[in-house]
## 1
Amino acid sequence: MGTTCNNVHMNENAAAGWYSDGQGNERYWDGAGWTQEVRSSPAPHPAAAEPVKQSAFSKLGSAVRKVAADRQSAKDELAREHEATAAAAGRLVTSGVFGTSTIEIYEGGYVRVAEGTEDHVQAVAIKKSTPFEKLSSIKFTESDQEKAASAPQAPSLLAGSVGNAVTSIMSGGKSLMKGTVPGLAVAGVTHLAATGSRRSILVVVTDKAIHTMTNQYKNSVGIKTSNKGHSDVARALQSAGYAVLGLPDPASAPVSEVIESPQERPAPAAPTIAERLRELSALHQEGILSDAEFAESKARVLAGL
């Protein structure tokens, strides 16, 4: 014989212990009959549970979600850093376009640089994401033409060589093929010959990069040109840079009150042989001088030794 509890029949010979009562709980069997002790049925052992197999598609989805989350995390971190440096940079002091680059200078000693190249037609603009960089130094170097205008120089022996080169270009000689491209006007050729002398440079050194920029760019017809007015922009940027760094601006150094008379002013030094040869070599490499003209001019310079 046996006893029944909630439709669960127990044999009277069953050992004492906890047994299911058929209602989701367990009741204690004392070996002779059911007691009033009831407890919840324990959860199955994890080892007994059937493992869940992840499909290849689910694994791919998880990997994609992780990559997206990592990218968003990195993007958020960059945004936080940008906001922090923007706060440290402070107020915008000045900004300007030099060649095809745009430079901003901030009172906290920071700059933002959108650096362009001489192959650009328009200046590269500063964007919201353009990083702030800690300014270390800023230096503007005038073009050879500007230096010559401020300090008269002795006439160069190369003047005749350059004249011969331009004459050869205008007459359609060998130099026309070396220094130009088909369809280039004579005005463009003479402009190309003077491009190097108009090239000025602005160097901005920061904690992240060395930005070397020039005042040159390509005009609407694709010819490299220089904007003389950009030199004034570069000087203003240099002055602002020195100001935020707390350094004296060499461009604003006091001028001596003593004015030299023409008789007291020393004559400008003539270019050295090495300088003349370097100038010749540069003209030859740029295609302004043909091989024959380069050899002839070089011989003339060396003959003066």
## 2
Amino acid sequence: MPEQLETALASLRPVLLDPTRLVRAVGAGRRRGPSRDAVRFERAELRPVDLKAGRALQIVTYGERAPITRNETYGPAAETAVDDLLAEPFGNWHVQTTTETIQLRVTKKGAAQVHRAAAVDTQHTGHDRAKPHLIDPGDPLFTALGAGASKRRQVDAFLRVLAGAVEDAGLATDRPLRVVDLGCGNAYLTFAAYRYLSEARDVDLLGVDVREEARDRNSAIAAELGWGERVRFEAGSILDAPAPAADVVLALHACDTATDDALAQAVRWQAPVVLAAPCCHHDLQRQLRSATTPAPYRVLTRHPILRERLGDALTDAFRAALLRRVGYRAEVIQFVDAEYTPRNTMIRAVRNVSPAESDGRDEYDELVRAWGVTPYLQTLLVDADG
């Protein structure tokens, strides 16, 4: 049942300030109402850490610039910091303790929906501890996929983004999580997503690819790993994919406009979480070659290599802006170092903002007019954008 928001947030305060009980807490998302200017942080993470001077509360805040980490001594300093964060207009709080997991979601009416589940977790308070692998490098999954160290590094980086997005979305936990990968290809990240997510809950995963050989190969691997009942693959186009009630939509290294097809399907399904790692960007590149370049950018498009890179950046900027227009909090990030894959850009989108509150509409329209192009995703989202 919904609770009064102030009361629910107040109940989190002693948990966040308990140095022996708190494991990790995340505040994320933006609730309905506050303008973007009133929001200082996109996300905040808290956990206890052991320093030479004693145990402290480590707070990492994410805004428009690089993350900022600070360690506050337990007492008045930590209390002030926690009070400030609880006053932020976050739409979700996810709190892990040594005994339970607390999920607080702010409803559209400004109330709090709180879910508590029993859990037994262990504190990791080392200040400079190495990040553990989210899937053990010796897991049979990597043997079945024939994945070496480079692929395992990509998997780990991808799973960290996936875990954060699922956490931010505050998805229901009383039923299986529904994951759809559109343009799944060889599906090594698809399998990794299932392996990781299914450790905590039931997961139903569907992979779609136009190639029948991909379906047959991936289905054989799923059977080999004993996942055949939960992990299915179908051959077909992205736009003809079945319309499940998807919780998470993935589009990982789908070529050119296939990424746009996947994003459009995710919007039509109103999927709460969308992760897309674009591959190539030929459609807008073709348009840029025939369009008149706005001054003073002719110095960039005069050089083919720079025009190509500019086209890549414009395409993904347009995609993120369009997702914001239809109700997503979207950001473009680097999800793994370039040494592991040159295609390391990811669009991370969580559906928790109403279209009326989305910003950037004027900037998007002005940018499209200036370049004289029509992003393919825009043509697919005409109905969704009204």
